[in-house]
Amino acid sequence: MTVRIKDGEFVDSQNRVLNLRGINVSGSSKLPTSAAAQSPSSLDPSTPISFVGRPFPLAEADTHFTRLRACGFTLLRFIVTWEAIEHAGPREYDVEYLKYIRAIVEKAKGYGMYIYIDPHQDVWSRWTGGDGAPLWTLEAAGFDVRYFAECEAALTRETYGRGHSTAEKARSANDEKKEFPKMIWPTNYFKLACATMFTLFWAGERYAPNCKVDGVNIQEYLQGHYVNAMRELVKYLDGLDNVVGVGTMNEPSAGYVNVTNLEKGFGAM
After folding, report:
1. Which pTM was predicted?
2. What distance in Å separates the CA atoms of residue 211 and residue 208, rounded to the nearest whole number?
């Protein structure tokens, strides 16, 4: 069945509005398969990274798609991250990951599953408390992620308890039963690392006109690499008619844009 968009709706070849029952696949895609999830070593810049096998190994795809179809799902909001595609460095795309994604999407087609590609991020990156962008984007902006925990430029589950605040010091370094506070991760949106990166991404030319990387303003540098990474992914999905769309970015933040008082948080969106 051919799916296209008309007047803001998904329709079939006879212009009938489709009710596509969807589900996210999946939260595991935010983390690499090559490092122990939520361990301090997973944020070590020297740790090798691979996202091949996210959301699940190709060998398990038939099992998952059979179950999803049995539950009545016909559409997958399929999570990918910038880091998964371009983690090795600028313009260094992970071909094995891109081939893996194509193979998974091809499998989905065999089960009558439509795919909506979701370029996902939460609070910029794994090093700033979420997922999304590669490490080198932070380094391009001048950050040294090794000191984020100490100065609390970001709160992460992997390094929680190493900061300087009273709340963190109250957590004994030897008490592993203490857990990362629930739903604390959104506070990273207005902490130094994440807020700075989004400010530079959307408005670097305005807020940091002299901040240049490879001869261009950091805004152009970051946006260009992000768009090109997603373009590379789309190239590998060429010809797969069960891909019904590609998103722009999940839950973007404005950073410090339009903020006039840091005590009052975000400015006008």
Report:
1. 0.90
2. 5
Contact 250, 114 (CB under 8 A): no
CB-CB neighbours of 183 under 10 Å: 7
Q: Is the pLDDT of residue 167 over 60?
A: no
**CB distance 27 to 8 below 8 Å:** no
**Structure-token match 């071909």, residue found:** 95
Whether the per-residue pLDDT at 127 is higher than 90: the answer is yes
Q: Which two tokens stand for residue 83?
A: 């880091």
Which amino acid type is present at position 49?
I
The mean pLDDT of 251-262, rounded to a whole number, is: 92
For 221-260, give one letter per residue: b (16+ CB within 10 A) or e.
Answer: bbbebbeebbebbeebbeeeebbbebeeeeeebbbbbebe
Q: Which of 40-54, 82-96, 164-178 has the highest mean pLDDT?
A: 82-96
H or E element: which one contains 114?
Answer: strand 114-119
Tokens of 168: 């963190």
Q: Both tokens of residue 261?
A: 């008082």
Calculate the CA dihedral of residues 157, 158, 160, 163 and round it to 10 degrees.
Answer: -130
CA distances 169 to 18, 127, 156, 159, Å, are 54, 21, 15, 13
Contact 207, 196 (CB under 8 A): no
Q: How far apart are CA 197 and CA 218, in angstroms?
A: 10
Angstrom distance (rounded) from CA 121 to CA 100: 20
CA 184 to chain centre: 18
Contact indicator for 24, 77 with CB cutoff of 8 Å: yes
Helices 95-110/218-236 angle, 10° precision: 50
Name the β-bridge partners of 125. 133
